[in-house]
């Protein structure tokens, strides 16, 4: 196993459990405790954790505001989740084809996808996210359409009745929806009612629904329910999700992507 993959697994584990032990990681990853200690030392230097005797604990993050900086705390590259967002975006960009008409709903993973769109040509991006629209339009061959509505300062995105009305004017062949929870019983969910309403508005006007979710948010339910899982054609996540979910999604006929190789093969 390469060091970068080992680091990603440790990060996912730490984000889920809030603490790790050297002995446990050594057995799980089949490497020496010396190697694990070096990995934890690197993550401590990045500001993700605080090493303790025999392991480490997740470091609480602070996000000081800066009114002169358009980036929100969710786009901060120092976030302990940044590598995980990047991992999902690296997979998702391979699902987008030249000439696609897509929607990137507001969210940090979609922001990372938008930054990679210079790899594609003649892509039209519908979005309610100001930062996504800027990144998506940075390539001369691509086009970004920003939905109108009330601008939320915290997320730098548009919401409300005007946004919902605006969505009805468009049809996309792929919509990328970033969610905060996936659960067998409750389906997919998000943390705000504004985002829930936005997603429900675009679902009837999209051909292919692609769900983006951190691996640590599986088996969790956020405050606002969107729909059952079976509305999705594809789910893109990190590689650390439980095997029971892989089997369940396969039974539903949903393609699960956890690596770039899986996207290139076109299967789970």
Please give a structural write-up.
- It is globular, with a radius of gyration of 19 Å.
- Strand 14, helix 9 and strand 15 form a beta-alpha-beta unit.
- It is α/β, with parallel strands linked by helices and 268 residues long.
- It has helices spanning 3-17, 22-29, 33-45, 82-92, 108-115, 130-136, 161-167, 193-202, 243-252, 260-265, and strands at residues 19-21, 49-52, 55-58, 101-104, 124-127, 143-146, 150-152, 157-159, 172-178, 181-183, 187-190, 206-212, 224-227, 234-236, 255-257.
- It folds into two domains: 3-58, Winged helix-like DNA-binding domain superfamily/Winged helix DNA-binding domain (Arc Repressor Mutant, subunit A, Orthogonal Bundle), CATH 1.10.10.10; 73-265, Rossmann fold, CATH 3.40.50.
- Helices cover 35% and strands 22% of the residues.
- The chain has ten helices and 15 strands.
- The protein starts with a helix and ends with a helix.
- Residues 62-68 have low confidence and may be disordered.
- The strands form four sheets. It has a seven-stranded parallel beta sheet with strand order 6-5-4-9-12-14-15, with helices on both faces.
In short:
The protein has 268 residues and is of the alpha/beta class. The chain contains 10 helices and 15 strands. Strands 6-5-4-9-12-14-15 form a 7-stranded parallel beta sheet, sandwiched between helices. Strands 1-3-2 form a 3-stranded antiparallel beta sheet.
